[in-house]
Amino acid sequence: MSVQKATAIARANIAFIKFWGQRDAELNLPANSSLSMNLAGLTTITTVEFSPDYDDDLVSLDGREARGEARQRIVAHLDRVRAMAGLQVKARVISENSFPVGAGLASSASGFAALSLAASRAAGLALSERELSILARFGSGSACRSIPGGFTEWTAGTSSEDSFARQIAPPEHWELRDVIAIISRAHKPVGSIKGHALAPSSHLYQARVASVADRLAQAKAALLEKDLATLGPLIEEDAISMHAVMMTSRPPIYYWLPGSIQLIHQVQSWRAEGLEVYFTFDAGPNVHLICQAADQAEVERRLRDIAGMLEVIVSGPGPEARVVESF
Amino acid sequence: MSVQKATAIARANIAFIKFWGQRDAELNLPANSSLSMNLAGLTTITTVEFSPDYDDDLVSLDGREARGEARQRIVAHLDRVRAMAGLQVKARVISENSFPVGAGLASSASGFAALSLAASRAAGLALSERELSILARFGSGSACRSIPGGFTEWTAGTSSEDSFARQIAPPEHWELRDVIAIISRAHKPVGSIKGHALAPSSHLYQARVASVADRLAQAKAALLEKDLATLGPLIEEDAISMHAVMMTSRPPIYYWLPGSIQLIHQVQSWRAEGLEVYFTFDAGPNVHLICQAADQAEVERRLRDIAGMLEVIVSGPGPEARVVESF
Question: What b-and-e string marks burial along B248-284, b requiring 16 or more CB atoms within 10 Å of the CB?
Answer without folding.
Answer: bbeebbbbbbbbbbbbbebbbebbeeeeebbbbbbbb
